[in-house]
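Subgroup meeting minutes
Present: P.N., E.W., G.H.
Scribe: E.W.

1. P.N. recapped why we're keeping a running log of single-chain structure predictions: easier to compare across weeks, and new members can see raw inputs and outputs side by side.
2. G.H. added today's entry (196 aa).
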Amino acid sequence: MTDGSYSSDVAFTPSVKAVQARKGSRQAYARMEERGGWQTRITPDLAEFIAAQTSVFLATANAQGQPYIQHRGGPAGFLHVLDDKTIGLADFAGNRQYITQGNLADNPKAQLFLIDYANQRRVKIWGEARVVEGDVELTKTLMPEGYKARPEHVILFTVAAWDSNCPQHIPQRSMPPTLRRRSPSATSASRRWRPK
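Output recorded in log:
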């Protein structure tokens, strides 16, 4: 907490807190805030979970506040933890709408939503993102080795706060081993990771 604010204020606005109070959950979240709130740095367990993912949803909003969610995917390891505040990925060529890139030009606020259906785990990460174009070395560093895709640019995401959800209502899905693109350690990493 600094100056009466909490890391969870990124999501728990005064309006959200009013709804929580009306519906009876504000007291529990206030206790969570008093204990330090949500994490603001990437922990080793979270880094391992991120590295194991083959899919992520990236939420942005334009200057008018209209939200947009874009799926990004690749082999396990396509998301890179660069330090305890930064996640990077090579952004592959796709449908060429560039909605995410346009939104980030107007509004850097963004969220990553990671979900592991097989192990019923999910993490929400709030922060700011930016697009980096023309940095050949950074793109090469973030490009998954041997992956057949064309990187157009890099997205760097700076973490403000993160939270994990309970597994309730996450459908347990799994693919046959022949269809999995996950690394052998992905499942074990997800099982070891536990929300704090």
